[in-house]
Design brief:
Strand content: under 5%
Helix content: over 70%
Largest sheet: none
Mean pLDDT: 85
Shape: flat
Oligomer: single chain
Structural class: mainly alpha
Number of strands: 0
Order of helices and strands: HHHHHHHHHHHHH
Distance between the termini: 8 Å
Number of helices: 13
Length: 305
């Protein structure tokens, strides 16, 4: 186990380095710069700003300097938000995205897993067809359409919920619904297909032959094996939703990390783009490593090598 974990951690470090390297060079190869959008700025002022942030140095030298600072947790100062460091921006914005994303993941699991199991148990019946239709719609409909429908009906038409900000628990309802709709539908389909495969195994037929109740067969014997594909999906899902959905945060005016990332891209804030990209990559890779370890806890038959 320890040897496997050490190997995965080593591969994770290499992957994060590769992501940071590719992002750095691609970002700097794009024509333009972070100060071109400044109003009425002279060439001398532009040169002074580039010298202040080290953008006048050769690209490879800037790369070595940045990677050396990043190893010590220093992602530099934001080029657009003067006087603020990238690390402070991430630490301030990430908890907001984490709360919304965490609630969305929890709702997705609490709704998607039971409904997927129920659809498998009622295979071919009306309830199975209804759940399959809802799951298909959830996967096919984009998140911005869900956000628009929620805003119109719950926010404007019936005035049940606030439409922007994140000041009270009511502000969380629509963003969480919009964020969790797709993963809930995907988990339902994933759980249904996995459960159907498990229910067809020999040991499940033996349990039925012995007269074990259907509820016990489903949730005691079958669920532990059928849930493994969902565990695989939860790793990257958790990293994505916790970091924040860019579209959902933008529509509901949530001051999270997603909005900062979009602003950094449009404003060519190189340091903030790099910091958030490395942070997101590290989070996704960490979740994948944890998922592999959880495999062993869920199913002891799995051997980690």
């Amino acid at each position: 186990m320890l040897k496997y974990i050490a190997k995965r951690v080593g591969l994770a470090i290499v992957t994060i380095w590769a992501v940071a390297t590719i992002t750095f060079f691609l970002m700097n190869m794009v024509p333009g710069g972070p100060f071109l959008s400044e109003k009425a700025i002279s060439p001398q002022a532009t040169a002074a700003l580039e010298a202040k942030y080290g953008l006048d140095k050769p690209m490879f030298q800037r790369y070595l300097t940045y990677m050396g600072d990043a190893l010590h947790g220093d992602f530099g100062d934001s080029l657009k938000q003067r006087g603020r460091t990238v690390t402070s921006i991430i630490l301030m914005k990430f908890p907001v995205s984490a709360r919304v994303g965490g609630c969305a993941v929890l709702c997705s699991l609490l709704i998607g897993i039971p409904l997927g199991c129920l659809a498998a148990l009622k295979r071919g019946k009306f309830l199975d067809s209804l759940i399959s239709v809802v799951a298909t719609c959830g996967i096919a409909v984009p998140s911005f359409v869900i956000c628009t429908l929620l805003l119109y009906f719950l926010g404007v038409r019936f005035r049940l919920l606030p439409t922007m900000g994140i000041n009270s628990w009511q502000n969380y309802v629509m963003p969480v619904m919009a964020l969790s709709f797709y993963p809930t539908a995907y988990i339902m389909r994933l759980m249904r297909s996995s459960m159907l495969d498990v229910l067809g195994q020999d040991y499940m037929r033996t349990a039925k032959a012995k007269g074990v109740a259907g509820f016990m067969i489903l949730f005691k014997h079958a669920l532990r094996n059928a849930i493994l594909p969902v565990v695989t999906y939860v790793g990257p899902l958790l990293a994505y939703t916790v970091t924040g959905s860019f579209v959902v945060e933008k529509i509901f005016v949530i001051p999270g990390l997603g909005g900062e990332f979009i602003t950094a891209i449009t404003g060519r804030d190189y340091t903030l783009i790099m910091g958030t990209t490395i942070f997101l990559a590290a989070l996704i890779i960490t979740m994948n490593v944890l998922v592999d370890i959880v495999y062993k806890l869920v199913d002891p038959r799995i051997k980690l090598k």
